[in-house]
Amino acid sequence: MSYKKYWNEEIETIDRKDLEVLQLERLKEMVKFSYENSPYYKRSFDEAGVKPEDIQQLSDLVKFPFINKQTERDTQGVGSFLGELAAVPEEEVVFISTSTGSTGVPTMSPFTKQDFDEFQDTESRWFWQIGMRPNDRYVHALNFSLYVGGPDVIGAQNLGALCIWGGTLPSERLLYILKTYQPTILWTSPSYAWQLGEKAIKSGIDPKKDLSIKKIIVAGELGGSIDATRKAIEDLWGAELYDFYGLSDIFGACAAMCDAKDGLHICEDQILVETVDIHTGEILPAGSVGELVFTTLRKKARPMIRFRTGDIGWIDNTPCSCGRTHGRIHINGRKDDMFIVSAVNVFPSDIEAVIRDIKDITGEYLIRIFEKDFTCKYSVEIEKNEDNFKTDEEIENEVSTALKARIGVKPYNVVVHHDGELNTRSEHKSRRIIDERNLDYSI
């Protein structure tokens, strides 16, 4: 059967000038709606001396104040169950998700019915974009417990795929499902995709021959956008891997890869993107690396006006070979995770790219950040394969040299473990950074 190329061709291939006209129209409506209905935005805009009428062009958004994760925490539960950022009464809210709380107190994200329906329609767009069709069988192996990515399985059902609500099943049970039902598409985290493939092989299942997975979607970690990690998982499964990006603060369907795999298309009809200097908050031109700032253009339950995401990256607005005109974001890492060694900004994603590209080690790693002689240092712990007969010293030198070449600064040391000794494997997000510093190295 022949299917259309785009889920929503009109919006996905819209001329950029027309897209900006649509964004301005929606931005004016959202800022006005937020000012009139959210106690926080009314107070914040008044204190900043701005009003909705000040938005006459997209660049006027710079006049308005930022919000961030701390704003959410400070306003959550204040004045009402939904808090001061909310712009609708609780009666209009049909769904809430919460953040993981990995950087502090978990924060709630409410949705009206319209918010939720548009959230899932956007998710259908991303599924269609990576090639999911009604004849696919899809396993949604993500946490359903308050996690914003849990309901995204509805986006797959909307386009007609046969959906298996796997959730966070034990590996053995999930492998049984993959072998028995022979699904074609799987969504999980990069770490777990790698570990599940390893477990399959150890249990006598060849992912390439015994299973039918043709596409793997990953999210929640940076691995899917790291070339070496993506290739390693693709080689293990004999499948194409696509990275998705979502935020509990916005919704779980913010951006996704297409077949070009050159960044992640962001839904610019729903989200206005700015890039700002991480130190000054100054607006940076498209293509510059900085902190990504998002403004929701449709979400009514809790509008997010100039939300500083904490994600460091850049947006590419040049034409994509897939024909879609929405910009593509590239994520370098989390501002919270970045550390500075010898005046060099180091992102864990850069370290992962090196580790995943070295043969004869498992790809598992742990980063320790610490102080020595009043300066910031880092060490890396890795595992060598069981059939790796190189000495630990040879492996240490190989890893250290590769990190120096990629990042610009060597690790203080490299610690070599045997396969399975590192204890970083997880069925969800893996904890790979231990920060032992007492000094303040925040940027």
What would your notes on this structure say?
The protein is an alpha/beta fold and 443 residues long. The chain has 11 helices and 19 strands.
CATH class of the largest domain: Alpha Beta
Which architecture of the largest domain would the CATH scheme give at its second level?
3-Layer(aba) Sandwich
Count the DSSP helices: 11
Please indicate the percent range of residues in DSSP E strands (runs of 2 or more): 15-25%
Read across the widest sheet, the strand sequence of neighbours is 4-3-5-6-7-8-9-13-12-11-10
Order of H and E elements = HHHHEEHEHEHEHEHEEEEEEEEEHEEHEE
Total beta strands: 19
pLDDT < 50 stretches: 439-443
Helical content, roughly? 25-40%
Indicate how many domains the architecture comprises: 2
Distance between the termini: 53 Å
- Rg computed from alpha carbons, rounded to a whole number of angstroms: 22 Å
Q: Which structural class do you get from the secondary structure elements?
A: alpha/beta
CATH topology of the largest domain: Rossmann fold
Give the overall average pLDDT.
92
Shape: globular
The CATH superfamily name of the largest domain is: ANL, N-terminal domain
Major sheet characteristics: 11 strands, mixed
List the helices and strands and how they pair.
Layout (H helix, E strand, L loop, with lengths): L8 H4 L3 H22 L1 H10 L20 H7 L17 E6 L9 E5 H17 L7 E4 L12 H6 L3 E3 L6 H11 L3 E4 L1 H13 L12 E4 L8 H11 L2 E6 L9 E2 L7 E3 L4 E6 L13 E7 L10 E10 L11 E7 L4 E3 L2 E3 L1 H10 L3 E12 L2 E10 L7 H16 L6 E5 L14 E3 L8
Parallel strand pairs: 3-4, 3-5, 5-6, 6-7, 16-19, 17-18
Antiparallel strand pairs: 1-2, 7-8, 8-9, 9-13, 10-11, 11-12, 12-13, 14-15, 16-17
Helix pairs in contact: 2-3, 8-9, 9-10, 10-11
